Amino acid sequence: MRKKDDEKQKKIKEAVIKLTLHEGFHGASISKIAKEAGVSPATVYIYYDNKEVMLRDIYREYSEEVFEYLLSKLKNEVDGKKIIEQLIRNYYSYINENEEVFHFVDQFSSCPALSNNCKGKSGICILYKLLDDMKDKKIIKNYRNENIVAILFSPLKAITINKNDNDKEKELIEEMIQIIQYALLV
């Protein structure tokens, strides 16, 4: 059996993201992915059993990375206003620093047939625990976590996807932070 090479696997992941964004899930065939990554199709199968497993594993890895990024940059704040602001700013930074990965994760999560197979994501569980703690301490309103996450992060997607000029984008984010704080804080 051939040995796995981290650099080859990284190139495969980059190829998957690039081709999926440009050609969609169905257009990103194993042979195209291999060609883009500069490896043989057989090499792709060393890392992934099939295309569905490959997409799911890469999605899971990068969606976890989003949560790790959000939560690792969250300072030990007890002030709800600051926590909300940090979560929003951290998400905005992640999107800008990892644009292609973000769009891949977003596209994948918009496809229920694929994303519903991705059980066991720990990052969202950690975020939900943070939100539950904030609700228990009466910092934020007792909404469902899914709705809170949507309120926190969906507006930022709309702002960053529209590619406004930097000053306007900063103004929109400042205003969005205030709106979200008003909506969520007790």
From TrEMBL:
Keywords attached to this entry: DNA-binding
Signal sequence segment: none
Domain HTH tetR-type: 6-66
MF terms (GO), sorted A to Z: DNA binding
Gene3D superfamilies: Tetracycline Repressor, domain 2 (1.10.357.10)
Record-annotated DNA-binding residue ranges: 29-48
A matching Pfam family: TetR_N
Lineage, uppermost ranks: Bacteria, Bacillati, Bacillota, Clostridia, Eubacteriales
The protein's name in its UniProt record: TetR/AcrR family transcriptional regulator
